[in-house]
Design brief:
This protein is an alpha/beta fold. The protein contains ten helices and eleven strands. It is globular. The chain starts with a strand and ends in a 9-residue tail after the last helix.
Length: 280
């Protein structure tokens, strides 16, 4: 059957979501990772905006200090999960919020409580027909290869899927291709972007000592992961006949948001094989 994907864009690069939706649709993406949590009291408005531009809500992102357990943040994540089907979406992305001190191991109880909370949110989200995927993120509790292993070992594979980010993996010293292949049976979503070439060939500790450079993440194929690494990522998806979303993301860009994200779109279109992209 082969890989069957749709292409989404994370609107983080834009300051205005309505402008982002217009640009993302005109570029040619199939979906947008909409901030559903910001629209909880006006879901009809969000749905109408997406329908106007013929875009699908691919997923929504929720970060939190889930190592603190069942807090208001966890309850809000469940509330957002309940809202997702109302805008035609079934994927909730969970991630850690910022954690300090970093890098280095946190207390084991924080990791275990984080995993237990993610499991609980995923169990409750399932009742709404929503799948939870976990997103690794630099400068958070789950950023290194070791921490990703710990997270995956302590979350229920029937409930929590991998929604990895290629450049965040590379920043945390986790090889994107090897990590995706290691957890290929749990891939449920993908953020794809490149890593600033200034940060290539370093350890995580060295990247922290260097500090945050301007534009940590780069356009596809132009950074430290590069053509070889990113095409390798696509090849892993082909190996498992992946069916789902590939979401391009640029946290920032020296270009305009529209041009930077259009470049990512063109890279993806050029690197997909005939028949791998579906429109519905």
């Amino acid at each position: 059957m082969g890989m069957r994907v749709r292409l989404a864009c994370q609107p983080l690069t834009w300051r205005n979501f309505q402008e982002a939706v217009k640009d993302i649709a005109e570029i040619g993406y199939d979906g947008v990772e909409a901030p559903v949590g910001a629209y909880l009291d006006r879901l009809d408005e969000l749905k109408a905006l997406l329908e106007q531009h013929k875009l699908v809500c691919s997923a929504t992102y929720v970060g939190g200090a889930f190592w603190k357990g069942g807090t208001e943040e966890a309850e809000r994540a469940v509330k957002i999960a309940e809202a997702l089907p109302k805008v035609g979406c079934t994927i909730l992305i969970l991630a850690s919020s910022g954690y300090s001190p970093r890098p280095g191991r946190a207390p084991k109880r924080h990791y275990l409580r984080f995993c237990a909370t993610v499991n609980e949110i995923a169990q409750r989200a399932k009742k709404f027909g929503v799948k939870v995927v976990f997103h690794n993120h630099a400068w958070t509790l789950i950023e290194s290869a070791e921490e990703i292993d710990l997270l995956m070992a302590n979350t229920d594979p029937e409930l929590v899927w991998a929604g990895f980010d290629t450049a965040q993996l590379a920043y945390g010293d986790a090889d994107p291709v090897a990590t995706l292949r290691k957890f290929k049976d749990r891939i449920g979503y993908l953020h794809i972007k490149d890593l600033n070439p200034q940060l290539g060939g370093m350890t995580l500790e060295q990247r922290y000592r260097m500090g945050r450079v301007k534009h940590v993440f780069w356009e596809l194929g132009r950074g430290a992961i590069g053509e070889r690494g990113l095409t390798g990522v696509l090849d892993v998806l082909r190996e498992i006949n992946y069916e789902g979303w590939i979401c391009a993301e640029l946290d920032s860009t020296p270009l305009t948001p529209r041009i930077g994200n259009a470049n990512n779109y063109l890279w993806l279109v050029e690197h997909l094989k005939p028949g791998e992209r579906v429109s519905s």
